[in-house]
Structures are given as structure tokens and as C-alpha cells.
Amino acid sequence: MEERGKRRFSFIHAGGGCFTNSLGITGIGDPFVLKTDRNCYYLYCTSAPDGFFCWKSRDMVHWTDKKKCYSRDDNSWGVDRFWAPEVVLYEGNYYMFYTAGNREGSLRIGLAVSDVPEGPFRDRAKEPLFDFGYAAIDANVLIDKDGSKYLYYSRDCSENVGSDGIHRSEIYGVRLRDDLLATEGGESRLLTPEQDWELVSGNPLWNEGPEMIAYKGNYYLSYSANCFADGSYSLGYAVATNPLGPFVKAEENPILSSYFRTDVSGTGHHSFTWSPDDTELWVVYHSHTDPAQGGGDRKVNMDRAGFSKEGKLYVNGPLTSLQPAPSGSRMVNVTRRFSAEAGGRKMPGLTDGIACVYEGNDGSGLELPAEEGKVTVILKAAEPVEMNGIAVFPGKDGFMGMVSLKLMVNGEMLSDIYELNRAHQIPLILSFQTIEVREMEIVIHVREGIKSVGLSEITVLKEDRQDTADDAENE
Q1: Is 80 domain-assigned?
Q2: How far is the C-alpha of 132 from the C-alpha of 156, rounded, in Å?
Q3: Would 474 be classed as within a structural domain?
Q4: How many domains does the chain have?
Q5: What is the tens place of the pLDDT at every residue in 128-179?
């Protein structure tokens, strides 16, 4: 930490508005997060041999109140393999769609209902409500803006064998009746494993864990591919202009992967939710608790996601180091109030929300030319903005080539120079006392002979005083 008068830099710790994407919940799979209208979050997972547990949070980071929200009983149709619960709020009730194995040994999709999100959930019938005559798993529901409803699921590879002898899990979709209790019309196959990255597992092949999100007139059907127990388990997406397709898979897939990483493995089976202030999209997914071991012991992870100006879905992850917490929980992301420029050119890519967190993923950043041994990025706001922290995401080469960083705010130096080294984790997060800013310069000094450095994103942070006051009141 460096000081100059009363102003100083310091690393932000988890309690000060940052967190690491491993949320401390292990022994689970297939995490799904529901945000309620009371700004409370509920997490449901594959988590018990005879049902499901759920957890509760107000900030998406700290999860407590673990409780059994669904348990099979003597009248239950499901006997084992309780997987992938997802909960939808509809007309005052909470509908849990889940997978289980029936008495004949086949996988089916059931529905349980509760009047509160933490349960207990009770089966709507003594049989699976959604029986397509074959093994089906991983239900996901879309209630579209026009009120129409759709069910997405994976036709499981255990009972889906092609003429080539290959078992395949494939994504299907079907219209739901208005009361969510039955389907309307026939189901359609929407996705099948076909891109090169989806074929790593060999036989069987998987497209599973569908999750639908509608955005600006398009329908984004995201999914996981390869075997969940393997490090190749990754996330991709496809886009259509209609809820039931036809869908076209993104060329940039996979958008969340642990390829070439040793600190994380098997990133997939996800859900999306919004930050407490509804300004940021987040993806919640599982990865292997022991990256070196893989297998079925998995933990909950969470990273930022979003849509680029070209309409591409992206994930800033897997990011295993500290990162700013979701906006509206201890910190507020105020980056959108700033524009960026460097070397006399506008740099909208530095404040668009897309960050490079490992080599090979989207958001690899901009190469900024060095002049006289330094690179200067200028952030400007139309009106004064309160802030007390920044997060700097470098490009694909990390902080190599960079020596130090300093901040100039409203034409004055905010702090002494902060020394950088190659070992700094991504992103570099610095905090300081709250100030009002209209213009800020981030000056990066580079090593001798370096002609340019890569930057992918700069995030500007402000303390959420209301959240802090609520915490103090609850202590």
C-alpha cells in the first residue's frame, strides 16, 4: 500500500466490495439462482440423493440458511438421480422443475410447487408431469414478454442412440400450456453436438443444461457440452429470432471454458441472474472442486456476463482471482457514466463491460501504443461522479511489460505510483477514499523497449452506502 497525505491505494478485500468466484458451496451440481421481487436470491442445486437443498443471499456473494427444500416421500414418482432443479415464480406460486429417475430406471422431468421460494415444494402429481416417452433431463422454462411459455430440456444420451451407434444428448423445446402443467403441440429438436469443441468426449456426446434468455428481440439458448466429469465441460450458445428456432450456434463458442487452465476445471451447467441493482448480468455455474481430480464433486462459481454491441453473449470468466462484487452489493459499477480515450482516440472497448481474463477468450482487448515510456488512458464523465475504486483488466498478456500505474484525478495526482509486477492477479483492483471525478487519467509506465500494452477493460466503482448502512443496522 502506498500513501500520500490522506489519500492512498490499497487492495480491496472480499469484505470491501470484492469476492472470488468460488462461493464456498461444494458437493453440488447444476446451480440455479432465482432473484425474487424482494431483491433476495435463492440458490437451488443438485445436492441430495432424495431431493434438493437451497441457500439464500441478499448480495449474491454470501450464501446462508441452507435447508432442504424438496424431499421425496413414499408417494413420489422419483426414486433417485434428483438433478438440476430450476424454480419459476408464476401467479404467486413457485414452480420447481426437476429431473429424477423413475421406478423403471428412466429419467423424467417433474414439477413441484410451493407458495414460498424456500419450500417445502410438493409434487404436483404422483407421476412426472412431462413424460415424452424417453429419458429427458435439465428442464428450463421461458415466460416470454407476450406471456407465452416454453420448456427446454435435454433428451438424455442414455436412451438416444443414433444409427451411427453414438449416444447423444440433444436440446429440445416445446410450448407450455398457460398454467405450466402440460405441454402444447409436439417437441422440436433445437441443438445437437456438432461443433469441434463439443466432440471432445467422443461417445457419448452432450448438449445439455439449456438456459434461455431473451434479449433485444433475439433468443439466446445457452448450453453445456462434453462430459460434466471432464475438464472439457464448457458453455456455448446459439441464437434465434423465435423461441423454438431455428437456432444458429455462435462461431466464438465456447464462451466459458477451462481449457489450458490448471486452477479451474469443468465449467458448465449454468443459470443467469441480475445484480441487486439490475444493471449487470451474471452467470452462475459449477466447476470441479478439485481441478486436478475432476469428477462429480463440484462447487458453485459466478462471473459477469453480458451482451456486446454486436449482440454476442459473453462471459468474463472463469476469473479465479478477486473481482468487484455484483453492482448494488457493497459496490456500484458506475463505469457506464464514463467515456474512454487514449492517444487522441476514443476507446469505447475499455468501458464496454467485456474483459479478458485468460488467453483465448473474447474481450482480448486493445493494444495501446506507448509514448515516451507510458500509456495514458483518459476517462471523462459529463457530470461529477463519486468513486472510490477501479479495476484494471489487462489484455491477453496480463501485466507483462507494465512497470507502474498512477492516477491523476481532475488534473491532480491522487496517489503515489503503484508498482506493478508480472505476478499481479487479474484484475488489479485499487481502492481509495471517496472522491468526485469528472476526468481521470490512468498512467501506465512500461518497461524499456515496450512499444504497446494491452488493456481490455477499466471498471469504475463507488461504495454502495445504502448497502453498508443496512449491514451496520443488522449487526
Answers
A1: yes
A2: 11
A3: no
A4: 2
A5: 999 999 999 999 999 999 999 999 999 999 999 999 999 999 999 999 999 9
